[in-house]
Specification:
There is one protein chain. This protein has 240 residues and is α/β, with parallel strands linked by helices. The protein has one domain (45-73, 89-236): Rossmann fold (3-Layer(aba) Sandwich). It contains six helices and ten strands, in the order E-E-E-H-E-E-H-E-H-H-H-E-H-E-E-E. The chain has helices at residues 62-70, 92-101, 118-128, 133-146, 162-173, 192-209; strands spanning 20-29, 36-46, 51-55, 77-82, 85-86, 103-107, 180-184, 212-217, 228-233, 236-238. The strands form two sheets. A six-stranded mixed sheet has the order 6-7-8-3-9-10, with helices on both faces. 40% of the residues are buried.
Length: 240
């Protein structure tokens, strides 16, 4: 299996041992004539600090692949290693620790708690880690400033635009300083201009927080800010 190797102009080429290693991963749903081969012998690596765009049409296997990397699903064959942990072999406790300490997610549906303010939504992961109140409030303020919403801390999701809600979701996702950010179609519900701004924000956040990110998209306009593009079709990695 192959991936594209050319990085867009102006982006850096990260170095170092892979943070993510996907090795011969396959995943099938159903059986017999109704079987859907969501992933077929997929292999690639992602270096620390790299922002990778995972590109493919709807139904190509992007979400299944991201779920396998983040421990939300297990492959039928092959293995996934993230930050030295074999994700595909972790028990439930190990998966909880992985998602608490190593991997964080951003989805296109935002997933904010409607009754909480922007600041309270961002602070949820920090509360779960029992971070002292003063430290939590300082981290939340820093993150809201980072995503350009320092003046919207007290607003609830229903009082914010889609782009603002996604910015809050990104701030919440990086609250615990994960090693890997997994974003599944984070601009899927946004217009082109707002979506491009959110992708630019993800690029800035990855650099500011020193994270690695894998972002799925089917929009070629979103690829220019990535260090590398990986294309998938019918569950297989393909050439550009």
């Amino acid at each position: 299996m192959t991936t594209t190797t050319d990085a867009p102009a102006g982006t850096r080429t990260p170095q170092g041992p892979p943070l993510v290693r996907v090795e011969h991963v396959s995943r099938t749903y159903g059986s017999g004539a109704a079987a859907v081969h969501a992933l077929q012998d997929v292999s690639f690596t992602v270096a620390p600090g790299e922002l990778v765009a995972l590109v493919g049409r709807s139904g190509s296997g992007k979400t299944t692949l991201l779920n396998a990397i983040g421990g939300l699903d297990k492959p039928d064959e092959g293995r996934v290693v993230v930050d030295g942990r074999e994700v595909s072999a972790l028990d439930e406790r190990g998966l909880v620790e992985l998602r608490r300490d190593v991997v964080s997610f951003v989805f296109q549906t935002f997933g904010l708690v409607p009754v909480l303010s922007a600041a309270e939504n961002v602070g949820v992961p920090l509360r779960l880690r029992r971070l002292p109140t003063a430290d939590r409030e300082a981290r939340v303020a820093l993150l809201l400033d980072l995503v350009g919403l320092g003046d919207h801390a007290r607003q609830r999701p229903g009082e914010m635009s889609g782009g603002q809600q996604q910015r809050v979701a990104i701030a919440r996702a990086i609250a615990n300083s994960p090693r890997l950010l997994v974003a599944d179609e984070p601009t899927g519900q946004l217009d082109t201009e707002t979506g491009t701004a959110v992708m630019a924000l993800l690029r800035a956040v990855v650099e500011a927080e020193g994270m690695t990110a894998i972002v799925s998209t089917h929009d070629p306009l979103m690829m220019s800010l990535a260090d590398r593009v990986i294309r998938i079709a019918d569950g297989r990695l393909v050439d550009a």
